[in-house]
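Exercise 7 asks you to align residues with tokens for two separate proteins.
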Amino acid sequence: MNYTIRQLRVFVAVAQQGSFSHAGQVIGLSQSAVSHSIKELEAEMGIRLLDRTTREVLLTEAGQQLATRLERLLEELNTTLLDVRSYGQQRSGTVRIAASQTISAHLMPQCLAASQQRYPDIKVVLRDRPQQWVLQSVRNAEVDFGIVIGPLQSSDFEYQPILDEPFLLLCRQDDVLAKVSDMHWQMLEGRTMVLQDYASGSRVLIDDALRTQKVGVDIVQEIGHPATLFPMVEAGIGISILPALALPLPEGRPLMVRRILPEINRTLMLIRRKNRSLSPAAEAIWQEVQQQGMLLTQQRESQPEF
């Protein structure tokens, strides 16, 4: 049968009010529109539901059976739709996020604090792991979404860039490169370097930058945690390259950072499984992280740190 919810609602209103005009006032339709809707429903069902006289509208036996059942069914339908709508507006529950160590240490604290203040009923669980683990966790639905360093060559995810940041030179204050007026990639030629290993999403990008700029360096140490770069450079083991998000430098250390020309950036991206919707709570936190990335970008543009 090709009838509509609207036709059923109109019929129930007429059954309850006993009048086309009164039913129209209740549901916001003209008397003629109500009459037309009832005629369409009766034609579709192939049975008369109402007996009309000049004074009143009476239910037939079939109409009485239909009205009794429809009132309950339409009420249940309305309750179900309201419940679904309420779920769509829900801002509670647990949201699980995975991010690499640098992102977790320097971007996520602001995101977590802002989320806690804005959505006190949402519990956010942050998992601090290497980038490959983050990708696998999103792929396996162990977390709601992740924050990674792009670009990525994968069709498994949907991406949302949130922040571009430059790679910087990290060196001692007494290093010869600390004193040059403009620092260029070619000035790294032949230098001894300490870099993060390939668990970091940045390492491949740094390798690509050195290759593109035709610079050869001597990599003497590859470490896992970005905080280890600072004491190694301070000890004179080598200079390093790090993303701007790793700032600020530890206080009281004889270290400095320099912009490297031409500027080469890395992109931080939100990722989630392709063609999979986030829960309302996860969607709210996704938007909050995106907003915090925009705020950080604006702050750096107005107050450069290096």
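Second protein for Exercise 7:
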Amino acid sequence: MEFILVLIPIFGIFAIGYIGMKLLNIEIKPISTIALYLMSPFLAFRTFYQNTLNMDYVYLGIFLVLLCVATILVCYVIAYIRLWDNEEKSGMILASVFMNNGNYGTPLVLLIFGERGLHYAVILMVLQQLIMCTVGIYYAAKGNERNIKVAPLKQVIRFPVIYGALLGILLNLVQIDLGSNMMIAVDMVSDATIPTIMIVLGMQLATIKLKKMELGKLSVSLFIRLALAPVIAYVITLFLPVDEMTKDILILMAAMPTAANTTMYALQFNVKPAFVSSATLISTLASVITLPILLVILL
């Protein structure tokens, strides 16, 4: 029951966007642009500014990079076999590589492993944010480069989330206190970012027609995200100098459904937004079955 309670607010926020789109037919792109370019940098800044940086970031960072590279390689192999173009390949990467370890994974780890586990979940959330706003943006831009005059790497450099994260790291390292009044403004924008992203996802889901869902590709994406990724994570943890509880958390986080942020990237760069958003929704629904099975295996 507690596991289901973690999901209720997630689907509740999705529903707000879905219902709002059905009733009001709101234009999605301007809202996604605001969330990505104006709000997300504040969230990235706060995430890195407020969390203590230590050696745990090194080991968990290595894990996330290896997991990201391995799953991207899987997508490349499948794309090569199926003769997919850049857009199809990038859409699959957005739907399959990046997991929702923030508003889904972190509370779940807290529920199962307690405060000690929460420490590692927060670190993973921070590092995953950095990977998504670099690697994720790169592939979103690369997937539609025929319509974009600026090269994918330049799109990454132009993306303000990176600078929010770097500024947060810098101020954290030199221990500059911004004061409570400044942080009130940062907190207000940061707290609104994730709900806004989830509302946009709900709005995008309202535009999807079931007849046009790419079920074959969706099945591949679900397999990679919910089944293959935790297996890859298990192999990686065999070589990491961390305790058993940390290994279990890493494997569990690797099995999280697709991150909502990827829908924003797909919308912004027009790279299979319907496919990526449907993968986010269906993987979240399917995780209600896959995650309890994984927990039985781990625990």
